Amino acid sequence: MGRHIPIALQAHKNESGNTTCLLMKISPVTPGFSAYGVTTLDRDVVYDDGYGEMTYSAAVGFEPTSLQFRGDMSVDNAEATSLMPVFDIPVSEADIRAGAYDFAACKVMEVNFEDLTMGHVTLQEGTVGQITIDANGLSFVNEIRGLVAQLKQSVCEKDSLTCRAPFGSQPIGSLIPGPQLRRGWCGFDAEALLVDAEVVSLGLENTVTFTVTPATGLTTNSLAPGLVVWVSGLNAGRSNEIDSNTAGGQITLRFPTDFPVQVGDQLRYRPDCNHNARDSSRGCAHWFGAEWVLHFRGEPDIPIGDAAQLETPHASSGPGMGAPVFEPAPEGMGP
Question: 239 phi and psi, to 5 degrees?
Fold first, then answer.
């Protein structure tokens, strides 16, 4: 892998002894969060990589694995382990656990810390994956993915029996509330389904089960599937999928919340779509009626071979069962 290295820095690296260290810059894609830097040196490094001066923290630091580069289009891969910050500098444990820095842009550079005017050489540039936290809670790991990893991603939609559109998504320029997508949008006003509520009691697991009031119009599992949007409390601004509910307002989430739910937390809840085309109780046909064919972003009638039926969700609901589907022609047509 060819890379540019300043002449002065290369001359320094050619010496029998050198004073180089690594810097890693993390630039999150989550709105409202600033970029931060860490270093392998035992003291902070203040460096300008051409995009503004930044302090690279030694207290958090990072320890990289071997950086791998190949010329056969395989994905460059490495990991960088950092200490969990104690005083929320330059990042906080709460933000890391909440996923604020997942899938951020990442750049690893090598500099001469005794003479930063020599510039830097970029060793790896790309993105990080989902940040993982060690079981002891003392460190977190960034999986560094090179730019080649982006070439492994699909650039077009694939066939699916279920709908690919997020429920409540809208086309770009729409005046209906909801996330706007360039393609594969739903078109239903899901914001209108949200009900304001408050947590009044907690279950055995305070990150999974809780009871809300009011339980307006709830029946058993009427929110399965469903969505909770947190308005206040430690989880404010985040959302969670609902696994089940009772008529009395007890809600069980599919996955635990990032932080414990507390009595008095404000939230909004609504039912969701199960992304099945002809399901008149919770699917696309329920929300759009006969017009579901205009909004469904999937191919519900794809023939599925017998061998793949057990591995394909909802395959049995489509006609054909792997064989061609023939429909009789109306009378009066044909030879």
Answer: -135, 155
Closest of 207, 265, 203 to residue 232, by C-alpha: 265
Whether residue 181 is contained in a domain is answered as no
Give the model confidence (pLDDT) of 83-120 as tens digits: 777 766 778 877 887 778 888 888 989 999 999 999 99
User: 204-261: per-residue pLDDT in tens?
Assistant: 999 999 999 998 889 999 999 999 999 998 888 788 999 999 999 999 999 998 789 9
Q: 12 and 125 share a domain? A: yes
Reading the block at residue 85, the tokens are 């910050």
User: Is residue 15 one of the residues assigned to a domain?
Assistant: yes
211 and 144 belong to one structural domain = no
- Which residue range(s) make up the domain with 50? 7-152
Cα separation, 84 vs 141, in Å, equals 10
Say how many domains are in the chain. Answer: 2
Residue 137, domain member (yes or no): yes
Q: Are residues 60 and 129 in the same domain?
A: yes
∠ CA 289-290-296, nearest 5°, is: 80
